Amino acid sequence: MVCVHYGPHGERLIRRGVQLSELIGAPLYVLNVDSSDSDEYNQSKEMYMAVWKRLAEEAGAEFMVRKRRGRKTTDVIVEAAEEHEVTQVIIGQSAQTLWQELTKRNFVNELISKMKMMDLHVVAVQRMRAGLEETHEEGVTAYLVKNEGMYQLSDEPEGTDFIKGKYFHELHTEFENGLFKIEQDGKARYLHICEGNLADPL
After folding, report:
1. Which of 59, 133, 154, 196 is the most buried (most CB within 10 A)?
2. How many Cα atoms occupy the beta-carbon half-sphere of 110 within 13 Å?
C-alpha cells in the first residue's frame, strides 16, 4: 500500500509501489489520508488526486481516500492496511532539520510502533531546492498564462495576464508535472505544476 499526500512526490511513490507489487505478486492499494475537516473544493488537491487516480487505474490498483476526522494519520494508515491485509507499506519522508526532530515526534517511529506483521518502506523525498537536478529536468524559460481563472503552463506569453519564470519538468513522468520558479520579494519561490496547471495559490 502506497500512502500519498498533496505534493510533487506522489507519482514517484506510486511507481515505486507498482514495482514492489509486481516483484512480490501482490495487489496494490494507493491511500490518501484527507486531513481537511470540510468538503470544500480545493483546486490543488483535486488536480493531484486526478493524477493519482489515473496512475492507480493504469496499474490495476485500488485508490482509497480516508478522512482523518480527528484521528492520527498513523491510525488511519494502519486501519486501512489491516482491512486489506497489507504486508508492505510505502511512505515518503522529507529530510528533517535537527530542530524538527527535537520538537516533533518522528512520524516513522510512531507508524512502526502501531504496525503488526507489516514492513515499512520509507522513500526519501528531497526538498525542492536541494537536489533539484536529481529529480527534475534542466529548467527552461516558460510562462504561466491565465485562462478562465486558472494559470496554465505555456511556452509563450499570451494575452496580458501572464507570469514569466523557469519550469523544471519532473523526471520519469508522462504528465506535465514539475516546478515553476519565480522571484518573489527578492527570493526564489517554487510553485507546483500538475498536468500543466498551477496547483499552488499565488
Report:
1. 59
2. 11
